[in-house]
Amino acid sequence: MIYTVTLNPAIDYVMHPLTxxxxxTNRSSSxxxxxxxxxxxxxxxxxxxxxxxxxxGICGGFTGDYLIESLQSQGIACNFVRLDKGNTRINVxxxxxxxxxxxxxxxxxxxxxxxxxxxxxxxxxxxxxxxxTGSIPKSLPDTTYDMIMNHLSGRGIRFVVDAPGTLLLRAxxxxxxxxxxxxxxxxxxxxxxxxxxxxxLPFARIxxxxxxxxxxxxxxxxxxxxxxxxxxEHITLVPPCKLVNATGAGDxxxxxxxxxxxxxxxxDTALNFASSCGSATASSKYxxxxxxxxxxxxxxGGVLEEHKEEIAAALERxxxxxxxxxxxxxx
Length: 331
Description:
The protein is an alpha/beta fold. Helices cover 43% and strands 21% of the residues. The protein is built from eleven helices and 13 strands.
């Protein structure tokens, strides 16, 4: 079973304003409401792929009611701690000529509610996967992910962490099964500006050596890199598609990767499918449906075949650089 944990969920209220003039009344041509939060996005894609999962987290108020009802109507199992006061935040997204976003602060979460969440996690068993992703509410300590992993440590549970900056670095001591930063996040961690999978692989190895079993680095239009638990490098590309909305693309990659591994697929296949899931969501209005994912997965096969020599050459350059570094360190 895969459990996603969303500590700071939201209702995304998307409006399409005809005008956006400050100080005046503006009118929208249409609106949509979506359940937001990285873990919730992952749960949605897993559900679309037919993978059993449970969405966990903390929510409250009438917006929390809407969140749970919406997820359950999609067939997603929920186990959220309910707050006594406060409402799950609303993010307002004004999708005009450009997208303008105002993210809600969210409710104050008492420590006892975090303790209740930890108690609910007692049902998680050996072989299960816990996905910790997204921001931590300001009312909770930055060490919340560490608290969760320490609470569940030694039970044979796989941890997946997709979080920015120090949250990601701090999680490495728990030896997570998977982390998935993007190239910009990796660049900020190491004060560099890698763009391509080839440029990101040396940094992925550092993160691997510091504790992460598998490291995926997504690089937008350039594809993605994977340093797997055995120390092997992998590169994939993206299928041809038109960018519509990149929100949730990284979450979709995590979901696709886990889904394929649960089927028993090898790491190359899982990475390729993850890339297809991310691209499918990026080319969709909201999260991708299975039909779009399968269509792009088939298209990616042709792209990889066309560029297989380039990929092999890139991987060989990375390995040569690593061998040179090992020689220098030994001498």
